[in-house]
Amino acid sequence: MSRLLSCEAYFLNYPRILENANLQKELFKEPSMRLLVDLWNRLELTFTGIGVMSEKSRLYHLSSEEMKKEIHAQDIQCDLNALFFDSKGNYVPLYERNKLAISKDLFFNVPTKVVIGYGRYKAAIDAALKSGAIDILFTDRETVNEIEKERW
């Protein structure tokens, strides 16, 4: 993709969510992590998928029972780069001390955010759309039709 767009791609080769919150501070000090964090301040374009926060999600299954209760209590539907949103599109600060990911403010300041979302889990796509975090959505006709039915 980076060759097609004549740009550079960088990868975060760490888990997004750390089990041990104490590791976050230490990992952010690592040179490879510092490079990525510095680049987050200069992003012009992002590509991300919409994650579902339900029993069908891998992240959900990796969560503690306490965190699962929090996910349900906060009505979290959507995960965009470890940024979590409820069904109304409101940001929910979940895993703040455990995640290695771009901050909400930096993500929202990226001029062009391309998001890919499709399939039967419309609640996550709808929450992402309501959040204002999407500039361009790639999806399929079936998904658009279903979201339109639910919204209207």
Report helical residue fraction. 40-55%
Tally of helical runs:
8
Largest sheet data: 4 strands, antiparallel
N- and C-termini, Cα separation: 36 Å
Order of strands, main sheet, comes to 2-3-4-5
Radius of gyration: 16 Å
Characterization of this structure:
By secondary structure, this protein is α/β, with parallel strands linked by helices. The protein has one domain: Rossmann fold (3-Layer(aba) Sandwich). It is built from 8 helices and 7 strands. The chain has helices at residues 2-5, 22-29, 31-40, 58-62, 65-73, 104-109, 122-131, 141-151, and strands at residues 45-49, 51-52, 76-80, 83-86, 91-92, 112-116, 136-138. The strands form 2 sheets. It has a 4-stranded antiparallel sheet with strand order 2-3-4-5. Strands 1-6-7 form a 3-stranded parallel sheet, with no helix packed on it. Helix 7 (122-131) links the parallel strand 6 (112-116) and strand 7 (136-138). It is globular, with a radius of gyration of 16 Å.
In short:
With 152 residues, the protein is an alpha/beta fold. The protein has 8 helices and 7 strands, in the order αααββααβββαβαβα. It has a 4-stranded antiparallel sheet with strand order 2-3-4-5.
